Amino acid sequence: MSRSTAATAAVVVAVAVVAAMAMPAAGQGAPSGSPAPPYKNHTVAGADGWFFNATSNTTSGNYSGWAAGETFYLGDYLIFKTDDSSSVVQTLNATAYSLCDAEGPETLIYSPGHGDAASASPRAATIAVPLTVEGANYFFSEAGDGAQCEEGMRFEIKVAHGRGLPPDLAHPPPPPKPRVLAPPPDGTSMSPGVAGAGAGAAGDLTEGKSGGSRAGVGLLGVAVGVGLAVLVAA
C-alpha cells in the first residue's frame, strides 16, 4: 500500500470514529426530552382583552386565532381582562359550546357582574380561570342571551398534561362550613327560634345559570376550592 493510500484510509477511519462517537449508543435511544414547562398565566387575547362592543357587535380580539398560537397545560391559568358587560363560561361539552348554551352540562359561569351587555358604564374586572381538566376545554360569553358568543366571543383549547396539577388545584380545600348562630343567652327576650337561622349563609355560591349539579367533577372541585372567579378591580 502506498503512503498516499494509507493516509487516505487513516482519514476515513478517523472520520468514522468521530461520527460513531457523536451517535447515541445502540439501544440507548434519543436523549430524554426537556422537563415540562413551568405553570403559566395566559392573558386571553393579550392586550385586546375580553370585551364586546354592543354598538358594532364586534369583539375586541380574535380569540380563536389567539388560542391557536398558545400551548396550555394543567395548572395554567387563563386571565380574562374584561368588564361586567360580559361573562366567561367554561364548559367541557362541545355541544353546549357550539350552541352558545350556558345551560348545558359540565358548565361553569364566571361573571364579574350580571353579564348585562347593555350596561351604560361597565366596570373593569379580571377573571382568573384555572385549567384543571386535560383535553378539550371551551370558553365563551353568554351575555346578551348568547349574542356575544354568536358574534365570535368564544374559543376552544386543548390542555396537555405538562407537570400535572399543583397541590392547591389537585386537592382544593373543602367548601366553607355553614354558619350556625349561637343560641341566645338564658333570660333574654330573643326567641330561641333564631338559633341557626343563618345556617348555610356563609357557604352560598352563585354559579350563574349552570348550577353546581351540572358542573363537571373536575371543574366543580376547583370552583369550590378557589371560588368561581378571582375578581380584581382593574
TrEMBL record:
One Pfam family, short name: Cu_bind_like
UniProt entry keywords in alphabetical sequence: Signal
Statement: the UniProt record of this protein carries the keyword Signal: yes
UniProt entry tagged with the keyword DNA-binding: no
Molecular function terms, GO-annotated: electron transfer activity
Biased composition (Pro residues): 169-186
Entry superkingdom: Eukaryota
Signal sequence extent: 1-29
Region of interest called Disordered, as start-end residue ranges on this chain: 163-210
InterPro entries registered for this protein in UniProt: Cupredoxin, Phytocyanin-like, Phytocyanin_dom
Residue stretches making up the Phytocyanin domain: 40-161
Name of protein: Phytocyanin domain-containing protein
UniProt source species: Oryza glaberrima
UniProt lineage: Eukaryota, Viridiplantae, Streptophyta, Embryophyta, Tracheophyta
UniProt gene name: LOC127756896
